[in-house]
Design a protein that fits this description.
With 423 residues, the chain is an alpha/beta fold. The protein is built from 15 helices and 16 strands.
C-alpha cells in the first residue's frame, strides 16, 4: 500500500544529494555502471504529494514554494532509501542458543542436523498465534524503516505445514495493509524438510506442490515462490519441480542458492528466469557464466557471512565480469538477526571490496530491480516515490561504511512524510 499526502515538501541545506538517475527507464545497474552514483552538491529536493517533483542545486535566488513544509537537512547527505529484497522478519523467537553453539564449534549444518536452524524456528512459530506473529513482525518493520529501508520483501518458510505457512503469509498480507512502504511477499514452503518428513522427502514436496501452492494462490498471499536449493536442503531436481509448479500459479521464481556449496542453485535460477538468486557464497566461473546468459539478479547477503563466519559472495568478481549485483539483509533469527542496511553497505565495502558507490547502487536501484520496484523506488528520479534518507552531518559518502558502528540516519521520509512508527 502507498500512502500519499496532498502537500508540498521542500528539503534544503543538503550537503550532497546522491543516487540520481535522470532516466526513469533505468531499472538496474550492471558492471562498471555500478560505480556511477550521480550527485549534486548544495542541493534541494521538491516533493509534491509524496512524489519527487524536482531537484537541483540550491542557489541564493531559489524560490521555496508558498505553503511548503520546509525541512532543513542540516548539511547531511540525502539518498534514496534502501530496498531490502530478502528478509524473513516474520518469526516467533530469537535463536541465541544456537549462536552459543557456534561459538563452541558447531557448524550450521551440525546445528540443523540436531534439530536447530530452520526447524527450530518452525517449532516456535507453530506454537504462536497469528496476532502474536503480526505484532512482533510489525515492530521489526518499524525498526528497519527507521534504519532507512523504504521497500522490503518478506518470506514465509518457518511454518513448514500448510496451516502455518498460510499463517505466516496472512501476517505479511496484514503488514502490507498498514505499511507505508511497499512489501513483496514470498512463499518459501520449500525452506527445509520437516522432521516428520525426514524419511519421506517425496511426501513433503507433494505437500508443497499439491496443497500449499494452490491455497497460497487461492488467497492471493504471495508475489513470488522461493526454494532453498542447497546442500542438505532441496536438490536441483526438486527445485525445478517446485518452481515449475509455482509458475502455473503465476508466482515468479526466487532462489536461495549456493550458500553451503556449489550446488547448482544458480543454474536452475537462470533456467527459470528467476528474479534473483540469493546468497551465492559459493560462486565460481561456471556460475558467473550462467548468470551472464540470463536476467537473474545475483544477491549477496553479507550479514549472514559475517554472523556465521562463512565465505562472502564474490561481489567484486561478479561486478568486474559485467553483472549487476544486489545486496540485502537476510534479516532472520538464525543467521542474520540484523536489518540495518547501512551495515550491509559497510560489509560489502570491507569484506567484498565494493566501492561505496557500488554498495549504494546494490542496496537501492538493484534492490528495487530484485523485487520489481525499479519504476517507483531505488533512486532520486522525478516521478518516483519520495522515500529518502537524510543522514546526520557526515563528511562524505564513504563515511557510511567507514564508521560501520554508527547509525548514519537522521531522518527517513516515506512518501514525503517524516517516518514515525506504524501503529
Amino acid at each position: 500500500m502507498i500512502y500519499h499526502t496532498m502537500k508540498t515538501v521542500f528539503i534544503h541545506n543538503i550537503q550532497t544529494l546522491y543516487g540520481i538517475i535522470d532516466n526513469r527507464n533505468v531499472i538496474k545497474k550492471s558492471g562498471s555502471e555500478m560505480s556511477e552514483l550521480l550527485s549534486i552538491n548544495n542541493a534541494f529536493i521538491l516533493i509534491e504529494n509524496g512524489i519527487i517533483a524536482s531537484y537541483g542545486m540550491f542557489t541564493s535566488n531559489a524560490q521555496i514554494p508558498l505553503g511548503a513544509e520546509v525541512i532543513d537537512a542540516q548539511g547531511g547527505l540525502v539518498l534514496p532509501t534502501f530496498v531490502d529484497s530478502h528478509t524473513h522478519i516474520v518469526f516467533a523467537k530469537s535463536r541465541e542458543e544456537e549462536f552459543e553453539m557456534r561459538i563452541k564449534g558447531k557448524s550450521y549444518e551440525e546445528i540443523a542436523a540436531a534439530g536447530g536452524g530452520i526447524l527450530n524456528s518452525a517449532r516456535k512459530l507453530q506454537n504462536m498465534s497469528e496476532d502474536e506473529l503480526y505484532e512482533s513482525a510489525l515492530k521489526r518493520l518499524n525498526e528497519v524503516i527507521a534504519f532507512g529501508t523504504g521497500a522490503i520483501e518478506i518470506k514465509s518458510g518457518y511454518g513448514l505445514t500448510v496451516d502455518d505457512e498460510l499463517k505466516m503469509l496472512r501476517v505479511v498480507k496484514r503488514l502490507k495493509a498498514v505499511s507505508p512502504i511497499p512489501i513483496k511477499a514470498t512463499f518459501l514452503g520449500a525452506h527445509a524438510i520437516p522432521a516428520e518428513y525426514k524419511q519421506n522427502r517425496r511426501g513433503y514436496i507433494d505437500l508443497v506442490i499439491n496443497e500449499m501452492l494452490p491455497k497460497v494462490a487461492a488467497e492471493d498471499l504471495a508475489d513470488y515462490c522461493d526454494v532453498f536449493c542447497d546442500q542438505g536442503f532441496f536438490t536441483v531436481e526438486e527445485t525445478d519441480e517446485i518452481l515449475t509448479a509455482a509458475k502455473t500459479y503465476n508466482l515468479k521464481a526466487k532462489i536461495h542458492g549456493n550458500e553451503l556449496g556449489y550446488t547448482g542453485g544458480v543454474q536452475v535460477a537462470v533456467k527459470h528466469d528467476a528474479l534473483s538468486v540469493d546468497h551465492l557464497e559459493y560462486t565460481g566461473d561456471e556460475e558467473i557464466t550462467s548468470l551472464l546468459s540470463g536476467n537473474t539478479m545475483p544477491v549477496g547477503l553479507p550479514h549472514c557471512s559475517f554472523f556465521l563466519g562463512i565465505p562472502y559472495a564474490p561481489g567484486r568478481k561478479m561486478i568486474d565480469a559485467g553483472l549487476p549485483f544486489c545486496l540485502a539483509s537476510d534479516y532472520n533469527p538464525g543467521s542474520s538477526p540484523n536489518g540495518r542496511m547501512s551495515f550491509v553497505v559497510a560489509l560489502a565495502c570491507i569484506q567484498m571490496k565494493l566501492t561505496p558507490e557500488e554498495a549504494i547502487n546494490a542496496t537501492t536501484i538493484n534492490g528495487a530491480a530484485a523485487i520489481e520496484l525499479s519504476s517507483t523506488h531505488g533512486s532520486i528520479t522525478i516521478g518516483k516515490q519520495a522515500n529518502l534518507i537524510i543522514t546526520k552531518p557526515i563528511p562524505t559518502l564513504a563515511y557510511i561504511p567507514y564508521a560501520f558502528g554508527v547509525d548514519p540516519v537522521a531522518k527517513v521520509l516515506i512518501n514525503g512524510n517524516i517516518f514515525t512508527d506504524i501503529q
